[in-house]
Amino acid sequence: MAGAAVTVVFMLLSPAYGITFDERARHHHGERVLEFLRGGLGYEDFPADDSGGHLYGALFDTSAAWLHEHARGNVWIERHYLGAAFAGIGLIATGLLALRLTGAAVGLFVVALLAMSPRYVGHAMNNPKDIPFAALCMVSLLAFTLVRSAPPFLSWGSAVVLGLALALPLNVRPGALLYLAYLGGLLATMVILARAWALPTLVAVVARFALVAVLALTVGTLFWPWAQVNPLVRPFVALGQSSQFPWRGDVLFDGREVATTALPWHYLPLWIVITTPPVVLCGLLWASGATVVARGRERLWRAGLWVAALGPIAVIIARHSPVYDGWRQVLFVYPPLVILAASGWRDVIVSSQKRPVLSGVVLAGVLLGCAEPLLYMVRSHPNQAVYFNAHVRGPRGAFRRFELDYWGNSLLQASAWTAGVAQRIGVRLKVSGWPYPLVHEDVLRFPSLIPTEPAAEAHHLEVRLLRDSREGLRRTMSRSDILHVVRTDDGAPLAVVLPGPEFREIRDLVPGLDRPDDLQP
User: Fold this and answer.
1) Sequence ranges of the chain with CATH classification 3.40.50
2) pTM of the entire structure?
3) Separation between Cα atoms, residue 133 and residue 229, nearest integer Å
4) Hey, which bits of 128-283 come out as E strands?
């Protein structure tokens, strides 16, 4: 019930979020895959290309395209409703997994922690790949609880369920093959622990694993035309190519511009540490100690969650895989970390129960730890995805050191401000900006605005995302003609509104319009 309630809240909040960089291309791809499923396109219409779009499935995008066909509303709002629903599915699956492993109290706490994790919540609203993938990975992990303690560890029915569960995230990203490897490792571990060396038993285990693999690979390419050509091979090809995808560019990391091909090994670990709520980080510290002293089944599930959470990061570091946009590409490791953190706090609370004063201190610490990210989310809505913890003094301290709104979400707020100006003066305003494809779609939400190509130099106002080099950010924020700044609650600037070439037409219509906002970053 708690997970369902949070999902409803997610969906109600989602229209407040702007379009993000990948959404236009992904929606177009979803429309084409939907046409493919209806027989209007063939395999030859989905060749490999330099953009790398062929390396990903389109379960979410095809679902969004189908939804838009029937709802016929604003396509981006519809996609955000659907994305929030997927995030809710992931939250519910995470809570149920925690319940199965540790009990109802921890399951409920996991739902609360995930719902109070700003980065997860922010991306839940408009991230078309990473959140659907993370959510469906948790559905797969939940299905792992079907593994029994007695040989052959899986019934044929459970093997079918597991195969279908693994097919879900594979229809989004090839990284789901890691979970097939996890299942193989789990079954091998069970064989060793049970000393199930008899040949008939081994054959039974391998046969069931083979069924899981075949189902995952075949059903997992249902929304992936390129991989359907050879479903037993191409998903593995896609996994290798996507982990080394040659996206070249510079990212702002710890105050320096660093090429994605030359990132330091600690890029992902540092991003995780500075953008995860301290209450989760502290819980993970307790959980790491508990894993060492655990025994039997408890040690097995704790170790399994650590592997699911840290394994992909270790692989990325070892392979020097290019990553960017913080750690959004590995958001799927976060729900297992939340389960571990919640279990760590459970252990501390249980161990302190014999000492009332200590128990009260621990409970107060948990409540205060939960309040910090929750207050941030309320105050900085809808910019939860730019959360930074006290390690870097919040988003304000991270400005010009790390990328803030790399996703472009804040452009909708900037566009809404220009719409307010248009309503005050009773004139439809021409608005342009950077990146224009995002500005164009956000501006179209407001009848009082007209999206205008930058090259035409005919716009009244210009909306600009503050995603730039350290020096570029300094130059922009030092301009004296800034009309409006979209900020987080602690003052970190995310986007600005500037006068356009035709600003003189409206300058005198609203007294004080050209008076800059407070420009302190």
Assistant:
1) 411-505
2) 0.94
3) 22
4) 250-253, 256-259
